[in-house]
Amino acid sequence: MFKSLSRELAQAIRLTLVFAVVTGLVYGVAMTGLIQVIFHDKANGSLIVKNGQVVGSTLIGQQFSADKYFQGRYSANGYAADNSYGSNLGPSNQTLIDRVASSARTTRQVNGMGPNDQVPVDIVTGDFSGLDPNITEASVLLQVHRVAQARNLDEAKVRALAEKYVHGRMLWIFGEQYVNVLELNLALDNGEAG
Amino acid sequence: MVLDIIGVVVTFLAVAVGAWFLAPYLVKVFQGQRVFLSPVLRPIERGTYRLMGVDETKEQTWIGYGVSVLMVTIASLIFTYLVLRLQDKLPLNPMGFGPVPADLAFNTAVSFTTNTNWQNYTGEQTMSYFSQMVGLVMHNFLSAATGIAMAVALVRGISSRQLKTLGNFYVDVTRATLYVLLPIAFVAALVLASQGAVQTLASYPVAHTLEGAAQTIAVGPFASQEAIKDLGNNGGGPFNANSAHPFENPNGFTNQFEIFLEILIPFALALMFGRWVGNIKQGIAIAATMAIVLFAGVGIAAWAEQSGNPALTNIGVSQANTATQAGGNMEGKSVVFGPIYSAQFAATTTGTSTGSVDSSHDSFTPIGGMVPLVLMQLGEVTPGGVGAGLYGMLVFAVLAVFIAGLMVGRTPEYLGKKIESREVRLASLVILTSAFNILVWTAISVLVPAGLKGPLNPGAHGFTEILYAFSSTNGNNGSAFAGLTGNTVYYNTALGIAMWTGRYFFYIPILALAGALAGKKMVPAGPGTFRTDTPLFVGLLIGVIIIVGALTFFPALALGPLLEQFQLAAGHLH
Question: From first to last of its 574 residues, what are the pLDDT tens digits of chain B?
Fold first, then answer.
């Protein structure tokens, strides 16, 4: 009995080592090599380079607080891209409701809205990673006036630019429409709205 | 919203088509026949057996099979524990992480060995690339292959004619990995990478943002990990935020693709079962049962999440579905996924034993969050984990024919095998273990101070966080109401034990059941036989699943999500 068990264990250890090499190392390293060749930029994080400097990633949100930039969603971790997490606050938690109410007040204030105007839900809530790079069209449109004023630009031109950057669903049905905040702000900095 | 619903349905249809074509392939693989990949893979397979010292013609009894499962589990568990503890001395650690603390390493090693993949660690701040690839991804393959092997063993037991053996565990896991998991994961990793999932061994780049801040961006060899994480129903992500992290799940298409990966093999195994026993309708009946409960779950969760949080409406937040926004309860959800696709992901990840999350289940509305909770408590059979779903569902099938037999006063039989007291006792043991594990651990945790420190949210919601944690770990799911602080000595240990008992106290009765069935004579079907390939049986099976689940868990659900729902509707906040 003991002898057969120890033989069984030896076999189990050999299986573990074979799996560690084949499905761990070989699979991981081979896929890395292959994907680095085929999808080089995406494999490295879809980084955006401007004037020789990495300014961010298309897929990762970043903090915007200046009036001249469109602002992203609330982020529980302040867009710390090496530490992803969300608030995890439950729907009946007073802390969540207070936080959202405060974000909503700020949003109304900086965008010149009335005290009882409706605020789109996405801009005052955060996603689970704290890194959501996107906002809805509704949240972009309410910021057009402020951004145009801060940049001394024609409001209609800024609105047209924002609408140009609305991404549709993938394959017509998958996912929701969105605007990538960093992409739009880069376009503004590049003078695409005049 | 109509487009969302179409998208949900199209995704499920794609699964149906994929599973339909995968099923006959699985039959061939596990009956040892040649398949189109054999010319490439057969030499590798033979080499693997030589390295492992395995005689592929040797058949095992249910006890021998079970011993092999346990031995491999113990060996691989210790291996991963060592890798995590020694990661500072191992290669591929560009960020220079120190060793993983002992209790966290124990919890993580158990978590990945049992296919739970509960995440008490923050991947991007804790795990070296070597730990991710060798310590964790290895288990993503091995634990998934073990689940498939268990299901195949049970199917052999049901279909065999008075044999004492169930096949060879080493052969089953090797073939499951080489012929099924690796080829699909290979393609899936390329698809995910093409959309922006990262795959690199370099250290984290630092970006200088438009407003002049420095932003360190965590990356890693993760497209390959993401592929098997979903395909193998593992769910432990390289990043803390799991599939909500844009580098794991970059856009609306990958979200649906990951849902597809999660349920492809579970449904294919149900259909494989039908083909194996020589009546595809038996497989369709099982798959239909799984699908109906899953669709109901998706529907309820999607409705609840799209309806939004009444407490936010009261403070002037618009959650309406309009031309410029999807609306709904968006706390914890990505803009691209929106409420409906997030709800589909949540139901799918808990209907299987995946546990990947693309949104914060903790921040779901009470009813929306109850759906994943209930799907786990029903035993994760809709469609369940790779392998685990099929054998879990077959346990319910045994119970269903037993109940049908009681109604008409005949000895019940399933697929020509008489179901007698031993089989019913084993099936009941499986169900009781699971209920005991979830409810007793939850009760202990709300009584001891170390347990009460866990929840983030006050009131009924905090109770739900604890109940969810033990439902998830017992079912080897791994998703969480993540507000619960699980990375403490108490929870690392308690959840670790729950994962362990949830998996292996399940395995032993299942293998015993397979062994008992294997030895039985086939009885030809007569006019009095209760047919198990009809809509009537599907209805009965759903009834049994729901009644067993409801009787066991309704009181606990009343104290958690149901109470919170009534409080929220009445405007009572905590």
Answer: 899 999 999 999 999 999 999 999 999 999 999 999 999 999 999 999 999 999 999 999 989 999 999 999 999 999 999 999 999 999 999 999 999 999 899 989 999 998 888 888 999 999 999 999 999 999 999 999 999 999 999 899 888 777 778 899 999 999 999 999 999 999 999 999 999 999 999 999 999 999 999 999 999 999 999 999 999 998 888 999 999 999 999 999 999 999 999 999 999 999 999 999 999 999 999 999 999 999 999 999 999 999 999 999 999 999 999 999 999 999 999 999 999 999 999 999 999 988 899 999 999 999 999 999 999 999 888 898 888 899 899 999 999 999 999 888 888 889 999 999 999 999 999 888 889 999 999 999 999 999 999 999 999 999 999 999 999 999 888 899 999 998 898 998 899 999 988 888 888 888 899 888 888 888 888 887 889 999 999 999 999 999 999 899 999 999 999 999 999 999 999 9
Contact B473, B116 (CB under 8 A): yes
- Does the CA dihedral B258-B261-B264-B266 come out positive or negative? negative
Rounded Cα distance between A55 and B206, Å, is 9
What's this model's pTM, rounded to 2 decimal places? 0.97
Closest CA to B106 of B141, B66, B135: B135
Q: Is B292 helix (H, G, I), strand (E, B) or coil?
A: helix
Pairing of strands B317-318, A119-120: parallel
- Collect all residues with Cβ–Cβ distance below 8 Å to B37 and sequence separation of at least 6: B179, B183
Chain A partners of B209 at a C-beta cutoff of 8 Å?
A: 55-56, 62-63
List A174's β-bridge partners, or say none: A170
Asked if A19 reaches chain B (Cβ–Cβ under 8 Å), the answer is yes
A90 has a chain B CB within 8 A of its CB? yes
Q: CB of A26 within 8 Å of any CB in chain B?
A: no
For residue B242, give the 3-state DSSP assignment: helix
- Residue B403's CB is within 10 A of a number of other CB atoms, namely 16
d(CA B339, CA A21): 40
B80 backbone φψ class: left, alpha, beta (φ>0; ψ -120 to 50): alpha
Can you say how many angstroms the Cα of residue B288 is from the centroid of all Cα atoms in its chain? 18
Owner of token pair 């790779």: B386
Q: Is B317 helix (H, G, I), strand (E, B) or coil?
A: strand
| Burial status of residue B275 (CB atoms within 10 A of its CB: 0-12, 13-18, 19 or more) | middle
User: CA nearest A142: which of B318, B329, B336, B1?
Assistant: B318
Q: How many CB atoms lie within 10 A of CB B572?
A: 12
Question: Given A16, A27, A92, which is nearest B76 (Cβ)?
Answer: A16
Distance CA B188, CA B196 (A): 13
Question: Between chains, do A18 and B51 touch, taking CB under 8 Å as contact?
Answer: yes
Distance CA B135, CA B475 (A): 22
Rounded CA separation A169/A161 (Å): 19
Set of chain B residues whose Cβ sits within 8 Å of the Cβ of A129:
239, 241, 244-246, 334
